[in-house]
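hi! just following up on the protien thing from before. the input was this:
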Amino acid sequence: MRIFKTAALGGLMTVLTACTTGDKTSPSLAAGLNNKDLYEVHHDGRIHVFDDRATYEHFLEVGETSYRQTFIGAGPKGETLVFGVTGADKKKRMEQVAGYNLYHGMLPASQPFYGETRLDGRIYVFDRLEDMEAVRKTGEAPLRFTQIGAGPAGETVVFVLNSDNKKHKPDALMAAFRQHNR
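and the predicted 3d structure came back as:
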């Protein structure tokens, strides 16, 4: 009996190791998922994450989403993560939802990429997922172009730059923001 338990435990460890060492950005995962945009709202100790613009806009209007998946204490500073999902995504496992995978770094962002984070009364706008992740962790964008009062409700808009574009006015990113916030 002891040999059976040892063999079963060894088999379980092999299965778990195989599951955790797989390629997180496999082509089958990326197929059909929206990795073009990501939206976050940091509010009241929660980070609301959306990969669908319409769901994000609905949340901004009413403060809730019809369908969501919540992870208490899973944010970078112990915040609750709330993934707003569409009706089509509500029955999927979270590993099959683009916003979940983008947020956790398991799905590469497409190029071009567009991201928005609403944090401390400001709207941060991104063209790289890596920059969005850095602001999420630190709460600040060291390289930025700021427009006071340029948001839809008069918010300050922070266009996040990086070492590749820090010496130029972010005209393309500003145009993308205007297009997304008509």
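Strands lie at 37-43, 46-50, 67-71, 80-85, 114-119, 122-126, 144-147, 156-160.
The chain is about 30% helix and 25% strand.
cheers
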